[in-house]
Each structure stands twice: as C-alpha cells, then as structure tokens.
Amino acid sequence: MAHKKVAVLVAGSWGTALSRVLADNGHRVLLWTRNAAQADEINRLRRNEKFLAGAEIPEGITATTDMAEAVSDAEAVLFVSPSAAMRDVARQAAAYIGQDALVIHATKGFETDSLKRMSTVLSEELGRSEQRIVVLSGPSHAEEVIRRHPTTIVVAAKEIVCAESAQDLFMNSSYFRVYTNPDYVGVETAGAIKNIIALGAGLSDGLGYGDNAKAALITRGLAEIARLGEAMGANTLTFAGLAGVGDLIVTCTSQHSRNWRAGSMLAQGLPLDEVLQRMGMVVEGVRTTKSAYVLARQHGVEMPITDQLYAVLFEGRPPEQAVESLMGRVKTHEIEEVASEASRGRTLR
Which of 20, 75, 157, 166 could be stapled to 162 by a disulfide with Cβ–Cβ 3.0 to 4.6 Å? Predict the structure, then answer.
C-alpha cells in the first residue's frame, strides 16, 4: 500500500509503540505531545524514557507539540490519549482533521461523567458518524510491541471499509497481525472492562491466593464483561476473541499491566491515592470501575466482581472482605445458569 502521513495523539507508552508499527510499515508518523521536553527527547535522543524505558524510537517518527503540524493533511489520525483527556484532545484536533482522514482510537475506557464510549466522544467532537470510527484493541503490551515481539490485535468498525483501511495501515507480516471485526461496541466494552478484572487479579496475587483464585476471577470476569457488553448492544461472540478473552488473559497475568500492578499494591495495604502516585501513569481500571458500577445499574446486570472492587477502591472495604463476599454469594449451577440466560437471549452470569 502507499505510504501515508499518520498523526498519533498522544506520546504515551501505547501511542509510542503503535507509532513504531506504523513507522516500520513505512508511514510518516507525527507523534503529538503537550510536553516540549518529551518531544525533544524523542527527536534528539530517540527515547521516551518515562513511558518505555530503554526502548529505541525509530527515525520514521517525529514528535511535535504543534497540533496543526501533526494533524493537517494526515491521511489517518490515531487517538491514544487517556480516556479522561479524549474529549479535550479530540476538540483540539477537530479543526485540522480532513473529512477523508481515517480516524482510529486505541483507548480502553469510558468517559467518567457521561459514561460514553470513546467512539461516541470522538463522534461528537469530530462531527462524523460513530460507525466510521475504528477501534483498535486486543492483547498487546506496549513494552513488547516496541521491541517487535509477535502481537495480534483487532480493528473494529461498523463500516467494514474503515476497519480494512486500518488493517492495511497496521498489518506487519513480521510481528503485528491484525484482524477485523464489525462489532466496535463489543471491542470497546471488552477493552475497558477487562482493566477492572486485571485490578482484581493483581489484588488476588498480592494477597497470595494463587492460580486457582486467579483462574476463577478471569473466567467469571469474562462473564461480567460479556453480560454488560451484550446489554450495551455488543455481539457475545466478540468476548471469545482477541478483544475479549485474549486481552483479559494478557492483562490479568502480566506484570507489564498497570492495572495488575495497582491491584497488587492495594493488596499490600497502600491507599489508592498513594498507589496512583507511585504508578506515575494512568491506571484506566480505576476510573472504569466507577463507570462500570453505574452502567451495571443502568442496564440492570449483575457484576459482583466489579461491585466488590468498587467497594475496595472507593468505600474502603478491605480486600480480604471483598473476597469473602464473592465466595459467599448465593449458590447456583453454572450449566443451568448458562442455559437459562441463553434462552432469554442474554449471556451467562
């Protein structure tokens, strides 16, 4: 395919790693950041030490603090800002994005106050159909992608031509494989909610509960993700794919995961404010727990793991008590439960 100018907003760990994929594919990448010192570090030293320590930034990437320079005439714009900053970044970029530019986002979270998905936020700020916005997600640590470790992700859009354009943009036969999926609602929801379960996995590991507990947490966590996702209009099958179980496994089992590390610190008795200060980077699962807690009640779905994590994060419940509450729930039968839910057109609990 022809090489393109691609704007990547912003220069965090995931934005930088995806910029490497794009540069390796021959595209000209403009990586936008608000931080002039960070831009200088990337351009002069080919490093982004705060977010990807020790990784080399290829020459095909140019960092800039000038939004007009980054976005004007870009044939594709990739948003990778934290969920809390997405609306502001999109608003700044809107005046420079051409009508024919491909718009992609790779942010896993909801807008905290409105509870909106990121594609909805972008649609509102950019004045384009949500169905033309591509969601990039899947099992992918930035620390591995920047080092060209084999990775497989999914790009989702209702308009398949948009998803296929994003697939062409990112597909790299050496280390970065890309699938398409029309279920952008499911891909977005899975990417956001899995961060909650990863917090729980870190907390479980931090308490020393071992593999049995974590396997149960991942399995029942997937049920919660699917239940809320389907209530929001997603296809249940999406949660059995890369954006669902794939991303859930990688985020719950790796110390690369910010959410896992935050959960592990909470298990050690550190208060949430101190955990976030020590992390020094956004932990999306914290905000998402609050959003999912409200969404579950709006949609009338049960999310017991989310409920207990909400209590730990925002109500001061000791982690051990949260585990006791989960273990002490009313007994049920898994197979009968699945069959009952399926017969009503819903997903398993």
Answer: 157
Q: Which of 217, 223, 294 is nearest to 259 (CA)?
A: 217
pTM: 0.92
163 plus 219 within the same structural domain: no
Domain containing 169 equals 5-182
DSSP state of 43: I
For residue 330 the two structure tokens come to 């009313």
Does residue 340 have a known ligand-binding role? no
Same domain, 19 and 159: yes
Q: Is 194 a catalytic residue?
A: yes
282 is in an annotated binding site: yes
Q: pLDDT tens for residues 120-144?
A: 999 999 999 999 999 999 999 999 9
| Catalytic pick among 4, 116, 194, 214 | 194
CATH number at residue 339: 1.10.1040.10
